[in-house]
Design brief:
By secondary structure, this protein is α+β, with helices and mostly antiparallel strands. Helices cover 26% and strands 30% of the residues. The protein contains 17 helices and 34 strands. It is flat, with a radius of gyration of 27 Å.
Length: 590
């Protein structure tokens, strides 16, 4: 008997057969009545694809007993799209149907189709509808899509405020927008004009929201004449209330012509909102010339070299904008081979190793306060683990402890400051790469235990948080550990590393829709244990070990031209480092 024989084409053949049976109504045993159409389906197929159907059809509910299901609020066209996906794995999504398909996929708990809808919305995200997409994504708990839509709204806020779709937004969405520390507008008065326009659409129903909105606008930039003008405008539009009068009462004038009753000087200097921002690169920790590092280096536009300081914009009461530099604070623990992930201008550094021990400690750097704070420790002391944010949650997996390569997956509970276990990797991996893409986590390569010995891996797997399962995906063409992993333009890159005998400069690109790796242009230098991050649409690889020496060189990759270029080198030669891209306030226009 021959074991382990597999037919790679069988899945496609089975899918074709099931689809044909559905189209011809062969052996169907469930009748679904939609708003304008009656469809037939197979209970076992729906139960396999959807926990919703599995529960409904197997616990004695009337639908399971009568073989009928009524969905009065669902159009036949949308239901057909969902059922076509169930039977074939394919769906025709358009601007007109994608939100309805997403709603039904979420209701039926068909997580893969839900992710496909989010991918479609992300690829068609435009300024005029971005906040409407934010509302849909928030409703369906698609946190990554919601964050991207909100970021687009912030970056093009002046245009968003004058779109007809702005008038249709829920009040909670407008409030979320006003709370953002970065909004690309010419002035705070532009925000006031936008919210008054929004409220004017339905004065009776929306008037009550205006005080909360106006409190989020910095009225310190409106002089007495401007405030009087706006109070008169609000009264004319039947939007004026006592609360608004109290908030917007004109400031009184001193005998020397200056206004008082405004915010004090200190508050102006600490102004929380900026209307532009810039990306900067950070490299953190690692080892250099036998010494473990705690420090951070930064590179920003206008820097002639890497520095241990980050740009800072201070807004003075006299409306002068002064560019200063803040010294970057060091971590509490020097560490190498740690994991990192970035979210909302926070950089998380997890685990790693010192000269004589592995670490469980976790630290978080805030760009806005330019300070570090401690998180609760990882459940285990490990080095060579990997971290990524998915749907606003921080995940950590893999790594090497004193005893073995780890396979547990942990998610950080921010409210309770603790780590919660999820389904583990299929195998232990250390010095792997991990990234989030299309609503899933991807674990790539690394070192594992095979036959009792350490071996560099080519295998990769994908985690779906909806089903809480890891599934294998196509393996790398080249086994690699100590690699860099990055996501750009909805594709995953596995870069450099070490294959057990050679240091690599080769690069592979993964297409998640085709489950296929493709070789692209190699780096200029072979390197392992380096930092990798994405900035301005380019992948940056920083430092590492070439097989002969530690590196301070930096390369960037342009995916559009498929070319690598050398850029400004770091101050220190580092390996076992991590890298991150963060936003800092840029120049401000008034």
């Amino acid at each position: 008997m021959v074991e382990g024989v597999a037919d790679s084409g069988w899945h496609a053949a089975l899918t074709r057969g099931l689809h044909e049976a559905w189209q011809r109504r062969l052996f169907t045993d469930l009748v679904i009545t939609a708003q304008d159409e009656v469809l037939h389906a197979h209970k076992v197929i729906l139960a396999a694809a959807s926990p919703y159907f599995r529960a409904m059809l197997s616990i004695g509910l009337v639908e399971g007993q009568t073989q009928t299901l009524v969905l009065e609020d669902v159009s036949g066209a949308v239901l057909n799209t969902v059922l076509t996906y169930v039977y074939t794995g394919q769906a025709t999504l358009t601007e007109q149907n994608v939100q309805d398909v997403l709603t039904l996929a979420d209701y039926f708990q068909i997580h893969a189709l839900k992710k496909l809808c989010c991918y479609h919305l992300k690829n068609h995200l435009v300024m005029r509808t971005c906040l409407s997409v934010y509302e849909v994504a928030t409703l369906h708990r698609c946190h990554d899509l919601a964050a991207e839509a909100l970021a687009l709204a912030c970056s093009q806020c002046s245009e968003v405020l004058i779109q007809p779709s702005f008038l249709t937004l829920q009040p909670e969405t407008v409030l979320v927008l006003l709370k953002q520390p970065y909004l690309n507008v010419e002035s705070e008065e532009e925000l006031l004009q936008g919210v008054v326009w929004w409220a004017s659409k339905d004065p009776a129903g929306r008037k009550k929201w205006l005080p909360a909105f106006i409190q989020k606008i910095d009225l310190g930039y409106l002089n007495s004449q401007a405030r009087i003008k706006w109070l008169a405008s609000l009264e004319e539009k039947q939007l004026l209330s006592e609360d608004i009068k109290h908030i917007m009462t004109p400031m009184e004038i001193n005998s020397d012509g200056t206004e008082y009753g405004s915010d004090d000087q200190e508050e102006y200097i600490k102004k929380k909102r900026h209307n532009s921002q810039e990306e900067v690169l950070l490299v953190i920790g690692g080892e250099s010339n036998g010494r473990l590092l705690r420090n951070i280096e930064c590179f920003a536009v206008g820097y002639s070299s890497w520095r241990c300081s980050i740009p800072d914009l201070v807004i003075r009461p006299d409306s002068r904008n002064e560019h200063q530099l803040q010294v970057l604070p060091v971590m509490e623990h020097a560490r190498a081979y740690c994991a990192t992930a970035t979210h909302d201008n926070l950089v998380y550094v997890l685990g790693g190793q010192t000269n004589n021990t592995f670490l469980a400690s976790c630290e978080c750097y805030s760009v806005l306060t330019n300070s570090w704070h401690q998180l609760c420790d990882l459940p285990l002391s490990v080095h060579g683990g990997a971290a990524a944010f998915l749907d606003g949650a921080l995940y950590f997996t893999g790594g090497k402890s004193l005893g073995r390569y780890q396979h547990e997956l942990w998610v950080y509970d921010n409210n309770r400051d603790c780590w919660v276990a999820r389904t583990s990797l299929s195998r232990g991996r250390g010095h792997l790469g991990m990234a989030a893409l299309h609503g899933s986590l991807y674990a790539v390569g690394g070192v594992g235990c095979v036959g009792g010995a350490s071996q560099v891996l080519a295998s990769c797997e994908k985690f779906d948080p909806g089903s809480d399962m890891w599934v294998p995906i196509a393996p790398l063409a080249q086994a690699r550990a100590y690699l860099g992993v990055a996501v750009i333009h909805d594709q995953l890159y596995a870069i450099g590393g070490y294959d057990g005998s050679r240091w690599l400069n080769s690069v592979e690109r993964y297409d998640p829709l085709r489950d296929q790796w493709t070789t692209v242009s190699s780096m200029i230098s072979a390197r392992s244990s380096f930092g990798v991050t994405v900035s301005h649409g380019r992948i940056y690889c920083l430092g590492g070990f070439s097989g002969e020496s530690n590196l301070n060189t930096v390369e960037k990759y342009n995916p559009r031209t498929n070319m690598w270029h050398c850029v400004q080198s770091m101050q220190l030669r580092r390996y076992g480092l991590v890298a991150a891209t963060v936003y800092v306030p840029g120049s401000t226009r008034r």
